[in-house]
Amino acid sequence: RILSHHNMSVLFLRNLGRATRPVVSTALMVGKRISAPARVARVFSTTAAPRASSYEKDVTTMEGDKAPVNLYDGHYSDHMKEAQTKVRTFTYGAGEADLGQSSWMTVKELDSMMAKIGVTKSTNMLEVGSGAGGTSVYIAKKYGCTMKGVDLNPHGVETGTKLAKKDGVAGTCSFQVIDASKPLPFDANTFDAVFCNDSMCHIPGRTSVLEDWKRVLKPGGKLIYTDAMVVSGTVSSDEFATRSSVGKYYYPCLGQNEKYIKAAGLDLVEVVDTTPEASLVAKRWHDSRETYKSELKEPEDNFQGLQKFLYSVYFLLHEARLSRLMYVATKK
């Protein structure tokens, strides 16, 4: 039988209604009859929007700038997740070797740093750039001293506070959101030691920063910091861009930190080259993330950006075109 255009349209709509009925919930079918297009629209409208990852929400800026690749927000927020723990274990080692760090420091190096500044139970120490807080918590537990951690990133401060409570050192280890490029909100002669691991590179105005660290140190107090951005060879503009993709960085020339320390009125005690060890940490971190990629569940663009960043850290340190140096100084 030949059907008119009108009858064909009616038949099509009836068949569409039959075809869509099985995917519509019973609740939608109760009561007033709903047209097929409306039923389909309601079914699709109940689909939940995808949740933003820790690398995409509440992003912390550095000097007002948002980094092209997000390392710190995701790392600090996801600190206790199994995938991140696996990556750190692969990179730094298991047990106490996992400090929750997002840096080039191992626990062996940390203990050597504490020996250089003479940490005891009576030490009152400030950590500038405390990150996720694991390092301060470790020091408070192992050495029995008092720790104050400060960081620009609120995710890190929140995680550190939880870790201190979990590990039973909340009474001697606390954290605070502070922009360390500005004068610290502490009285003069408060701390026996100031410790800063791989964070000085983010802070502008280094001479004034060191002068402020000197101010809060007690007479005879010591400070120790590492800088993995010391330019010790030829680096291209593309390599600088990749190395800076996760935040704001300042690159001093070889010998410049020593001048900053002297200008701040501090006495330089020692400079230690840790470049070879740091390059190996960067390579392990890169490789471990590749191994656990499916478990990390990062946005693909951010994952690839971090992999490129980590490989650039490894390669520049491996070729000693950038160096990571440790500086120890004292207040007269």
Could you describe the 3D structure shown?
This protein is α/β, with parallel strands linked by helices. Helix content is 44%, strand content 16%. The protein has a 7-stranded mixed sheet with strand order 3-2-1-4-5-7-6. Helix 7 (134-143) links the parallel strand 1 (124-128) and strand 2 (146-151).
Question: In percent, how helical is the residue content?
Answer: 40-55%
Judged by helices, strands and strand pairing, the structural class is: alpha/beta
Q: From the alpha-carbon coordinates, what is the Rg to the nearest angstrom?
A: 27 Å
Total strand count, please? 7
Portion of residues in beta strands equals 15-25%
> What is the residue-averaged pLDDT?
85
List the secondary-structure elements in sequence, H or E: HHHHHHEHEHEEHEHHEHHHE
Features:
alpha/beta; 7 strands; 332 residues; 16% strand; 14 helices; disordered N terminus; 7-stranded mixed beta sheet
The gist of it:
With 332 residues, this protein is an alpha/beta fold. It contains 14 helices and seven strands.
Provide the fold topology.
Blueprint (H helix, E strand, L loop, with lengths): L4 H16 L5 H4 L6 H10 L26 H6 L4 H11 L14 H10 L7 E5 L5 H10 L2 E6 L2 H13 L6 E5 L13 E6 L9 H11 E15 L5 H7 L12 H8 L3 E7 L1 H17 L1 H4 L3 H19 L3 E9 L2
Parallel strand pairs: 1-2, 1-4, 2-3, 4-5
Antiparallel strand pairs: 5-7, 6-7
